[in-house]
Amino acid sequence: MTNSDPPLLNHYGALSSHSTRYDDPQSQLVVDECRLPLIDLSGLSSRDETVRRACVETICGASSEWGFFQVWNHGISLRLIEKMRSEQVKLFMTPFERKASCGHLNNSYRWGSPSATCPKQFSWSEAFHVPLTKVSDKACYGEFVSLREVMTEFAAAMSKLARVLAGALTENLGHGKEVMDNLCDESTCFLRLNHYLACPISPEIFGLVPHTDSDFLTILCQDQVGGLQLMKDSKWVTVKPNQDALIINIGDLFQAWSNGVYKSVEHKVVTNAKMERYSTACFLCPSYDSSIGCFKEPSIYRKFTFREYRDQVQEDVRKAGYKVGLSRFLVNGTDTVDP
């Protein structure tokens, strides 16, 4: 451990000493390595409508079958990605007490899982979670002047790509590309900088606990260490890193809006005993008062606002220790949470 590392071991140890041993049935499932569908996004800008439509259909097919896919020729330069990673590493190498108290990046620094009541709810990681509207704010950066320039450029590129992909997904369902532009709001869209510290205790500890994303879609830029796993055909599969590609995953809101056509898939990050891992994620979200309704009837889910969804997720995590998610909003679903 270095003086930049948060006291994860202390927090995890305290949870373990007050908890009975927990055996997660899913942790016993066979884990295979997979290669996600890899999509060349140059097709989206093709003047040949046949080529463009084929690219859209491939994106939508992967969103329905996997809920995850990779993209290349995405328009974000390797130079920018490398600069962002370098600045991110410098930020996380700051002494822990400084990170925890300086208020950088909209005072968004978080580590571990403050709401965790047992080891299965604990994430061995630290992160900054910044609204896109704050990314260019000079007051957020303090001494990290060079981070602001790079992060502003990176956030703009990721946000643009997210909207392009969202446009393709809505187009495939018979709606105009502008639907997501009207729904989404920079004040609720986020850029999240993640640092998964090496964890020598046990490979069973989560870097990030199993979850689905509470947005329309997420773009993930990760390093080559690996650790991302997703649920596919009732088993966990490990995503093989690809340095030339970004990872896209569908969030809960697109699953609800598409009436279950697109899948928001459970995923997690596993720890590495010797190597740390860095990633950056961009979350495409609507305004808090946007109504999320299915694009066709009969609807699987009742209508809800993004604010209502977030509030329900937070309440469930506070009361039960985990996210319940979309099952709360099924038209014919139940409204119970296991103790």
CATH architecture: Sandwich
Number of strands: 15
Output the structural class. Answer: alpha+beta
Helix count equals 9
Average predicted confidence as pLDDT: 91
What's the end-to-end separation, in Å?
36 Å
Look up the CATH topology.
Jelly Rolls
Radius of gyration: 20 Å
Secondary structure blueprint with pairings:
Blueprint: H1 8-17, E1 32-34, E2 38-40, H2 49-65, E3 68-72, H3 78-92, H4 96-101, H5 104-107, E4 109-111, E5 126-131, H6 145-172, H7 178-183, E6 190-196, E7 206-211, E8 217-222, E9 228-232, E10 235-239, E11 246-250, H8 252-257, E12 267-270, E13 277-284, E14 291-292, E15 304-305, H9 306-320
Helix pairs in contact: 2-6, 3-6
What descriptors fit this protein?
339 residues; Jelly Rolls; eight-stranded mixed beta sheet
Give the structure's gist in a few sentences.
The chain is of the alpha+beta class. Helix content is 32%, strand content 21%. The chain has an 8-stranded mixed beta sheet with strand order 2-3-11-8-13-6-5-4. Strands 1-10-9-12-7 form a 5-stranded mixed beta sheet, with no helix packed on it.
Report on the architecture of this protein.
This protein is α+β, with helices and mostly antiparallel strands. The protein has a single domain, classed as Jelly Rolls (Sandwich), CATH 2.60.120. It is built from nine helices and 15 strands. The chain has helices at about 10-15, 50-65, 80-90, 95-100, 105, 145-170, 180-185, 250-255, 305-320, and strands spanning about 30-35, 40, 70, 110, 125-130, 190-195, 205-210, 215-220, 230, 235-240, 245-250, 265-270, 275-285, 290, 305. It has an eight-stranded mixed β-sheet. A five-stranded mixed β-sheet has the order 1-10-9-12-7, with no helix packed on it. The chain has a two-stranded antiparallel sheet with strand order 14-15. It is globular, with a radius of gyration of 20 Å. About 35% of the residues are buried.
